[in-house]
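Below is one protein, fold included:
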Amino acid sequence: MTLHKSLAGALALAVLIPGAALAHHGWSSYDAEKTLTVTGPLSDVAWRNPHGEAKIKHAGKTWAVVLAPVARMEARGLSEAMISGGKPVTLVGYPRKDGVSEMRIERITVDGKTVELR
């Protein structure tokens, strides 16, 4: 009975983990055919993993901004201080296909410097 419960638990875990990973990293929910370019100051910047996040106002809505992992942004020359001060940035990315006001960022330009995030 203990072996059966262990196997059932392992099977359940094996089924759930890939689903959670796809839900979080499912880039297919973004429309790569519709490039969106937005300029303005970021708010609510969260410099964390698995990826940074922020918000920006665009087209009368507040959009969620999905950035890259912290290590990648820092390795490419982007720091939290560069995007947290309320100065304008230009974001180029893809909106969600389902109409949710969220965009996955491919590149960011701040203070004349463009950083590729993907």
The first strand starts at residue 36 and ends at 41. The CA atoms of residues 54 and 96 lie 15 Å apart.
